[in-house]
Amino acid sequence: MIWETFDTYEALSERGAAIFLDAIREYPRIVLGLPTGRTPVGMYDRVVAECSREYRCFSEVTTFNLDEYAGIERDHPGSYYAFMRQHLFDHVDIDPSRTNIPNGSAPDLKAECVRYEELIATAGGLGLTFLGLGRNGHIGFNEPGTPFNTRTRVVELHESTRTANADPFGGYVPTHAMTMGIGTILESSRIVLLVSGTGKENAIERLRSGKVSTDFPASALWTHPDVRVVISTAI
Ligand code: GLP
């Protein structure tokens, strides 16, 4: 695990964008795993700005988002589908048919999760996956206690996670979500964990300790051979 710490959120975002852009330039057919949340917004802004100057930046890139809320329509302002359109997809030359997000309004959510795993496999697996870090150590929506061999599935959200993510909902936050499992994430060839935001000091220290435990989902990353942790202690 390689650790990079930056003084500002801007510097973290610059670094994330550099890793992102280098990866798609080096291998234009890359399969990316992508996060939502406040942390990656600055990275996406910079990727969008850079790609607006380039011809065919995203044309062969395939993406899979980590997670999505269950029981809401795609055009709900709190959906991760809406988030991704707002922050990335609507501003770059990505082929919409190459963007994948679990469908939170699918009639059969379990079948949707199976379909999602199959899509990742058919695409050749994840090449580079960016993650954010929840205050309780969650990655994607894999809350504490999640076994490390889990696949994409429906999960119940912790109250603390629902509170932390309440902003775009203006009231009722879904109780469930679909998330790639920790096993799914660990199969990505490379992983970059982006960490910023208040109240994550304890989570950072637990990760840094190197103690691997299902009580702290992000600690699963210690079992992966190619992980970079990019941190900004200030937001
Ligand atoms: C949500 C997402 C996670 C994300 C986390 C941290 O729970 N499902 O994938 O990592 O938020 O978000 P933030 O960057 O806003 O702290």
Question: What features would you describe in this structure?
Answer:
By secondary structure, this protein is α/β, with parallel strands linked by helices. The protein has one domain: Rossmann fold (3-Layer(aba) Sandwich). Helices cover about 30% and strands about 20% of the residues. It is built from 7 helices and 10 strands. It has helices spanning about 10-25, 40-50, 80-85, 110-120, 160-165, 180-185, 200-210, and strands at about 1-5, 30-35, 60-65, 65-70, 100, 130, 155, 175-180, 190-195, 225-230. Strands 1-10-9-6-2-3-5 form a 7-stranded parallel beta sheet, covered by helices on one side. A 3-stranded antiparallel beta sheet has the order 4-8-7, covered by helices on one side. Strand 2 (about 30-35), helix 2 and strand 3 (about 60-65) form a beta-alpha-beta unit. The longest helix is centred in the first third of the chain and has 18 residues, at about 10-25. The chain starts with a strand and ends with a strand. The protein binds 2-amino-2-deoxy-6-O-phosphono-alpha-D-glucopyranose. 2-amino-2-deoxy-6-O-phosphono-alpha-D-glucopyranose binds near residues 35, 39 and 132.
